[in-house]
Design brief:
- With 237 residues, the protein is of the alpha/beta class.
- It is 38% helix and 18% strand.
- It folds into two domains: 152 residues, Alpha/beta knot; 69 residues, Trp Operon Repressor, Chain A, CATH 1.10.1270.
- The chain contains nine helices and ten strands.
- The structure holds 6-chloroguanine.
């Protein structure tokens, strides 16, 4: 898979692409993450990327010129046509099913904005999709792009050491994950649940499933509601 990231701050992505799961996936050639700075596609002597909004008001707006030029240069480099995603708090809210869908694409192009936002024509003419990572405001799209990249890359075949790890993740089946324990068996008087030490794989499975369900009911009843809705749709279809 290839992921192009268009940003004014390409250096922000260095730790992401060189560390942990994403770093290892890059090393293994599972994903190629290519950063491009909009500033390299300016045509004026000041290398301007932003300007004051027409109509007044505070803040600066990312201009069409460098963004269109960067997208056209990067997308037209001969590789597969990328799905162009604008990171914006006005976008569709990211969830695991969206992540899984995007992980199946051959190539993504992520557009990160800064300042007050993008010129509206970038939104309407360049973006295939607009994605938000939640209902709060970040100073720029970069941290959101990093969240998206991490969530996608860990789903690529071979990215995780344990082949089952992604399947058991929270949200993978619409539930929060069950509790995990490791050594020691007792820590400051807190014992590991007996069933996990029993070696009875069926009982362990049942316990984990029941923990996942009760935990989801207690903390995120909305997820169970969604799961019920999905199941009843499947039955009526
Ligand atoms: Cl994608 N961008 C910004 N600037 N803020 C956000 C966001 C994105 N998602 C949530 N908040």
């Amino acid at each position: 898979m290839r992921i192009d990231v268009l940003t004014l701050f390409p250096e922000m992505f260095t730790p992401l692409v060189s560390t942990s799961i994403v770093g290892r996936a890059v090393q293994r050639g599972l994903v190629d993450i290519v950063r491009t700075n909009y500033r390299d596609y300016t045509s004026d002597s000041h290398r301007s990327v932003d300007d004051k909004p027409f109509g007044g008001g505070g803040g600066m707006v990312l201009m069409c010129e460098p963004v269109f030029a960067a997208v056209e240069a990067v997308a037209g480099d001969g590789g597969p046509e990328p799905l162009k995603i604008l990171l914006t708090p006005q976008g569709q809210r990211l969830d695991q099913s969206m992540v899984a869908e995007l992980a199946g694409e051959p190539r993504l192009l992520l557009l990160c904005g800064h300042y007050e936002g993008f010129d509206e024509r970038i939104r309407t003419e360049l973006a295939d999709r607009q994605i938000s990572i939640g209902d709060y405001v970040l100073s720029g799209g970069e941290p959101a792009a990093m969240v998206l990249i991490d969530a996608i890359v860990r789903l690529l075949p071979g990215a995780l050491g344990d082949q089952n790890a992604a399947r058991n993740d929270s949200f993978a089946d619409g539930l929060l994950e069950y509790p995990h324990y490791t050594r020691p068996r007792e820590f400051r008087g807190l014992a590991v649940p007996e069933v996990l030490l029993s070696g009875h794989h069926r009982e362990i499975e049942t316990w984990r499933r029941s923990q996942a369900l009760s935990r989801t009911q207690a903390r995120r009843p909305d997820l169970l509601e969604q799961k019920r809705d999905r199941m009843s749709r499947t039955i009526t279809e």
